[in-house]
Design brief:
The chain is mainly alpha-helical. Helices cover 69% and strands 0% of the residues. The model has no long low-confidence stretch (mean pLDDT 91).
């Protein structure tokens, strides 16, 4: 068995447009999902608890200043999700989602993986957000028009994910 022919892999690779459309689909679905979750916390939409209900839940989960953290989580999810949808500051938007989802996994941590008690959903959202932070939004995004983020670098994405993990860790350390 010899080596593959010189263009064998290239001939089967997706086109740049296919990558861009795939990233757009991931950004829109993940971003709208997160924005909806954030609006549950902030406004009580879609059957959510609003700031009071979410704040009470956060306090019962061991966080100090539950209502303040409900605002932080709600804004992180809503603004991070909407930024993912339009591809704006994608590494930071992904990091915001990663940070809130790490806390969601820690709070839910039931020892189960599969729904309804498990963390599979939260883990999938976390991985999707981290993947977007690392890959960038593709060319169908606002980031394409911003000179300082036009050319996504893996280092930017990795630094953003690390920032999200550090903030999540600090937040978890505040928990009783």
């Amino acid at each position: 068995m010899g080596a593959p022919a010189a263009g064998a892999f290239r001939d089967h690779a997706a086109t740049p447009h296919a990558y861009d459309v795939g990233l757009l689909l991931l950004r829109v679905v993940l971003g709208l999902t997160m924005a909806a979750h954030g609006s549950q916390k902030l406004f009580g939409w879609f059957g959510g608890g609003g700031l009071d209900g979410t704040g009470t839940f956060f306090t019962m989960s061991g966080y100090p200043s539950g209502k303040a953290l409900a605002v932080v989580a709600g804004l992180s999810e809503t603004l991070g999700g909407l930024a993912l949808v339009i591809g704006l500051l994608t590494p930071l938007a992904g990091a915001a989602v990663v940070g809130t989802m790490i806390n969601a996994i820690a709070v839910k941590g039931t020892g189960h993986f599969f729904a309804p008690q498990g963390i599979e959903y939260e883990l999938l959202l976390t991985a999707g957000a981290a993947a977007l932070a690392l890959t960038g939004p593709g060319r169908i995004a606002v980031d394409r028009f911003l000179p300082w983020v036009r050319t996504h670098r893996l280092a930017y994405g990795a630094a953003a994910v690390a920032l999200g993990l550090v903030v999540a860790g600090v937040t978890l350390l505040l928990r009783k």
